[in-house]
Amino acid sequence: MTTTTSTTAAPTEAVATASTAATASTADAPALIRFRPTGLDTAPEVNALLERLGLGPFAPDGLTAFGGRNDNWAGTTTRGRQVFVKTVARAPDGSRPEIDRALAFEATAARLPAGSPLRTPEHLGTDRESAVSAFRLLPGSRSGSEVALDGDFDEALCREAGRAVATLHTLGTADGASGGTSGGEAPDPASAPAIDTGEAPLPPMRWLRAFPWSEVQDRSMAQIAAWKLVQDDTEVVAALHRLRERERTAPHTPAHCDLRFDQFLVHDGQLFLCDWEEFRLADPARDVGAFVGEWLFQATYSVFAPTGEPTSAKDAVAPCFDLSHEEIVERGAAGLRHHIPRIAAFWQGYTECRTPDPELAERAVGFAGWHLYDRLIATAQAHAVLNPVARAAAGIGRTLLLNPAGAVATLRLADPAVPHPAVTPAAVLPTAVAHPAQPHPADAPSGSPR
Questions:
Q1: Would you say residue 329 lies in a domain?
Q2: What is the pLDDT of residues 188-198, one digit of tens each?
Q3: Are 149 and 2 in contact (CB under 8 A)?
Q4: Which of 118, 137, 156 is the last residue of a domain?
Q5: Reading across the β-sheet that carries 82-87, which strands appear in turn?
Q6: Which of 94, 176, 193, 286: CA 20 to 30 A from 306?
């Protein structure tokens, strides 16, 4: 079974081990790669919260963790409850914006009726002071990243994802959203944080001009090179500014604002969406574009590393980067033909539950373009140089950012009643895919993430 982790850094003391990974496929444990969790003796606030919630402390046997940028723990308590606990970092000024945004979501989501398409793991309680939250563990669940890599994130699941995201975008936004739980106490509408109305942080517009020196030491050489792809391309920078301007005037709704495959979980045949630390009022096109971008990122990698059933004997051979122009274009178009029906199914589910504003699809294509750069920067974290596949992903992102209107129909984000065009590589695939070893114009040496 293929297993994956988030592309963000793992917790400081979370180290994968053969023994923990081997337990990932058991019937009563989530089917996600496991890590050794940070010792609870260094995080007494975890068991303190569980005790306050009446769940009992974690039993030491079988305690594990999952990948991600935040410390987390998964296991069974002494009272037999299967629980997932995670902590988030405080801001430099001591505030807890991530925990507040997550609590604002929980308060807003409390209004969802039974049977809603939007499902999320049950929130058991939060200690806001120590920024620790507890959720019901979903035994046997699989990360959406794993499901996608295994070829199981099919059109039916994509349609469910579209319905879930659309339901999120239709949630009420009245001040003082009710139903939140803080510190393990009963829901208190008066104490629920307000939904964040601040601008989403990505893309960081100040970084389009220059990379802050304070951030250099925390970035790999490949990540710095990825940022150079953006900064040195004046057309891309201008397109990102235009996208931000369109975002500011677009209708805003509750939005996830950090949507990736690994934010989805599949449990007992149902799709769950989690990780609400970036939840806020924002352009709903952000979430739609991120989902589209995830599939385009998959399609880019399938050019050089096809997954699933090989279409020919040649595809069954380990791929290399000396493919001919014709082979790359053929594989690129095949990858798009394979993944675009999933994008169309997502859009179908979305429009079944919500009527988008007339320009949402075009803005979503722009955000899909940014998403490809964002994933490029994130996945470059552990590398010294960008590989040709990463450059190809940036090339597709560039194509979408510069001409979002031109890709709406190709990506099947148009009215379902309108006949869709045949998938052709020219509409989405840039020269960077056809010639991945050659630098894209924005990647030329300048002379001298996340």
A1: yes
A2: 545 678 999 99
A3: yes
A4: 137
A5: 72-76, 82-87, 132-136, 123-127
A6: 286
- Same domain for 209 and 95: no
**For 103-149, how does the pLDDT look when each residue is reduced to its tens digit (9 = 90+)?**
999 999 988 988 999 999 999 999 999 999 999 999 889 999 999 98
For residue 203, is the peptide bond before it cis, meaning its omega torsion is within 30 degrees of 0? Answer: yes
pTM of structure: 0.81
Cβ within 8 Å of residue 426, ≥6 positions away: none
348 within some domain:
yes
Give the domain CATH number at 333.
Answer: 3.90.1200
**Residue 78 to residue 256: CA distance in whole angstroms:** 34
- What are the tens digits of pLDDT across the range 277-312? 999 999 999 999 999 999 999 888 777 664 444 444
Question: Does residue 317 surpass a pLDDT of 50?
Answer: no
Same-domain pairing of 338 and 438? yes
Residue 307 and residue 299 in contact, taking contact as beta carbons nearer than 8 Å: no
Residue 255 bridge partners (DSSP): 280
Q: Final residue of a domain: which of 137, 167, 188?
A: 137
Query: How far, CA to CA in Å, does 280 sit from each of 195, 334, 344, 444?
Result: 6, 37, 26, 37
Token couple for 77: 């308590």
pLDDT of residue 19: 32
pLDDT tens digits along 17-52: 323 333 333 333 334 555 778 888 889 999 999 999
Torsion angle of C-alpha atoms 361, 365, 370, 373, degrees rounded to 10:
150
Q: Domain residues for 56?
A: 1-137
pLDDT, tens digit, for every residue of 194-223? 999 999 999 989 888 887 777 777 788 888
* In-domain check, residue 414: yes
Rounded Cα gap, residues 291 and 17, in angstroms = 31
Concatenated DSSP letters of 37-106:
PPPGGG-HHHHHHHHHTTS-PBPSTT-BB--SSS-EEEEEBTTS-EEEEEE-PPPTTS--HHHHHHHHHH
pLDDT grade for 436, boundaries at 50, 70 and 90: very low
Q: Are 229 and 389 a contacting pair, CB within 8 Å? A: no
Report if residue 148 sits inside a domain. Answer: no
Please identify which residue in the block is written with the tokens 């509409």: 427
When divided into structural domains, the chain yields a total of 2
Asked whether 173 and 254 are in contact (CB, 8 A), the reply is yes
Mapped to the 3 state alphabet, what secondary structure does 193-237 carry?
A: CCCCCCCCCCCCHHHHCCCCHHHHCCCCHHHHHHHHHHHCCHHHH
200, 278 contact by CB (below 8 A): yes
- Give the C-alpha separation, 52 to 402, whole Å: 53
Nearest to 260 by CA among 344, 367, 361: 367
Q: How many residues does the chain have?
A: 450
